[in-house]
Specification:
This protein has 221 residues and is mainly β. It has no helices and 24 strands. The strands form 6 sheets. Strands 2, 3, 4, 7, 8, 9, 12 and 13 form an 8-stranded antiparallel beta sheet that branches. A 7-stranded antiparallel beta sheet has the order 1-21-18-24-16-15-14, with no helix packed on it. It has a 3-stranded antiparallel beta sheet with strand order 20-19-23, with no helix packed on it. It starts with 9 loop residues before the first strand and ends in a 10-residue tail after the last strand. It holds the Pfam family Cupin_7.
């Protein structure tokens, strides 16, 4: 197992991690959290070399993807950088990339009742006004779980707050900061239930944020 104690805060600068081979030739990954070698709860940054593909595979408890670079594809379509995808529990597909791509992939983390298929091109979706100078782009919600992009203008400071059900962040551009450190592009941060911080930025920054989805009382070794 890797980073499966959800009571611990985890910070990974993925740009400093090496690419590790996957079972498919030309497909590489940087693991963030993993329950088992090739199954169960898994989060990774994955790179497809141009022309590479992955065998048809099922998603017993769903798959969530954000395309970070290039164009990701499967038998249902092509998804350029900025595409946010949710494949519900019980779905399957055969992904590939003709030109190459980098994606965030989260496997087997859905509530079994969360059956929505979601396909959003965030490059063509309107930002909504958030608190203060923040702009927000909601992507998905189910009960306590909320997923969104948040755009921070230069010099923005947010109020100190706590995270019921935890918080997970991937920095997409700029540099995110709080009292515990600085987090450059493609840094992944997972903070446990009822953790808190005082975030701010010095330059325009965009982050992917998930809240309310981590275990509240179950702690795995």
């Amino acid at each position: 197992m890797l980073n499966m104690n959800f009571s611990e805060r985890v910070v990974i600068d993925t740009q400093q991690q090496p690419w590790l081979p996957s079972p498919a030739q030309g497909v590489w990954r940087k693991p963030l959290e993993r329950e088992a070698k090739e199954s169960g709860h898994t989060s990774s940054i994955v790179k497809y070399d141009a022309g590479s593909q992955f065998a048809t595979h099922p998603h017993p408890l769903g798959e969530e993807i954000l395309v970070l670079e290039g164009v990701f594809s499967d038998e249902n379509g092509d998804y350029p950088a900025g595409s946010y995808l949710r494949h519900p529990p019980g779905s399957q597909h055969a992904p590939f990339s003709q030109e190459g791509c980098v994606i965030l992939v989260k496997l087997n983390q859905f509530d079994p009742r969360d059956l929505d298929v979601v396909k959003i091109n965030t490059q063509k979706t309107e930002w909504l006004q958030g608190i203060g100078g923040l702009q927000v782009m909601p992507l998905h919600e189910f009960e306590y779980e909320h997923t969104a992009l948040v755009k921070w203008p230069k010099g923005e400071t947010f109020q100190p707050h706590r995270h019921f059900g935890g918080e997970e962040i991937l920095v997409l551009s700029g540099k995110f900061q709080d009292e515990q450190g600085e987090y450059p592009r493609h840094t992944w941060i997972r903070s446990p239930h009822m953790s808190g911080h005082f975030p701010f930025v010095e330059e325009e920054t965009i982050i992917l944020v998930k809240t309310g989805h981590l275990p509240i009382s179950t702690i795995q070794p």
